[in-house]
Amino acid sequence: MQTMESDAIHGHLRPMRRAEFGVLVEWAASEGWNPGLHDPDCFWSADPDGFVAVELDGALAAGGSIVSYGGKYGFMGFFIVRPDLRGRGIGRRLWHTRKQLLLDRLEPGAAIGMDGVFAMEPFYAKGGFVREHRELRFEAAVSRPPASRVVQRVGAAGCDAKIVPVRHLSLEDVIRYDASHFPGPRESLMRCWLSQPGALAVAAIEHGSVAGLAVARQARTAARIGPLFANSAPIAESLLAHLLDALPGVPVHLDVPERNPDAMALVKRHGLRETFGCAKMTLGTPPALPWQRIYGVTSFELG
Question: DSSP state, 95?
């Protein structure tokens, strides 16, 4: 593995150990990222070789992902430096080294994606990343009317889909549907994602085929919905209503691509409040995705 310059100030880069990734997640939780309770297991399953650590004085100093989805698409996420070591250049060196390491793991011409906080966008742009759109986090408050009432009020005309638990379906069919909304193979991640303890994973079935997918997973401060994919706005409405009604008294986060106007209208109808946002940025040619069917991204951390 290519290494960062190693010295007493900046440490050295090496593959991350599984236990250390758990530490990284705890740092993220303390920063308010609200990671899912089972994110470490699922993220690690996506690509066990896709996480790197900076070690300084024998201890973990920083880390981040260089996840390769079958060499077809890469994602740089979970980039964090230990708070007491910030401002020493560790993060800057780590970021540039990670970018090159990930490029080396991908097929020629494959793109790298990331969700970067707005304040860091100029730095990422200098590294060659270009903004595609904003992805905004919306929160459903603890006290809210049943979402099914919103569906009844706006009408679900044209929605003949049936909402069923994923466990009642062929997992291969569900994973195939997910694959049509993501630029690289991520079967390992989704097998863990759909079966993680405490998750509510549901699909919409229309005319005998999967026409929508939504997962709500347990997290630190609010349940997180993602992905939320749907072939039509009425199906997305039904999926979101199903999950919100199944989580009474629980705050919920949903990360929405701003470029999908139906998704933005959906969160507005349900009274969700914008609380956070990232710039969806890409190095290379942006993958062609059906953004009109993407109402909620799976995660800011791994795409």
Answer: H
CA–CA gap between residue 260 and residue 254 (Å, rounded): 14
Cα–Cα distance, 169 to 152 (Å, whole number)? 27
Tokens of 221: 């401060």
Burial class (CB in 10 A: 0-12, 13-18, 19+), 129: buried
* Nearest to 101, CA basis, from 60, 56, 50: 50
Report the 10 Å Cβ neighbour count for 149. 12
Q: What does the alpha-carbon distance between residue 116 and residue 292 come to, in Å, rounded to a whole number?
A: 22
> Could you read off the pLDDT of 103-160 as tens digits, one per residue?
999 999 999 999 999 999 999 999 999 999 999 999 998 765 676 555 554 445 457 8
Residue 58 per-residue DSSP state = T
Nearest to 200 by CA among 159, 149, 241: 241
**Other CB atoms closer than 10 Å to residue 38's CB: what's the count?**
18
User: In this structure, what token pair is assigned to residue 114?
Assistant: 């990331």
206-219: pLDDT as tens digits: 999 999 999 999 99
Distance CA 303, CA 114 (A): 7
Residue type, 260: N
Is a pLDDT exceeding 60 seen at residue 226?
yes
Burial grade of 154 (CB within 10 A; 0-12, 13-18, 19 or more)? middle
Peptide bond into 261 cis (omega under 30): no
Q: For the range 204-209, what are the long-range contacts, defined as Cβ-Cβ under 8 Å and sequence gap of 24 or more?
A: 204/161, 204/162, 204/163, 204/230, 204/231, 204/235, 204/238, 204/239, 205/161, 205/162, 205/163, 205/164, 205/169, 206/160, 206/161, 206/162, 206/231, 206/235, 207/160, 209/173
- Provide CB contacts within 8 A for 172, sequence distance 6+: none
**Distance of alpha carbon 277 from alpha carbon 189, whole angstroms:** 24
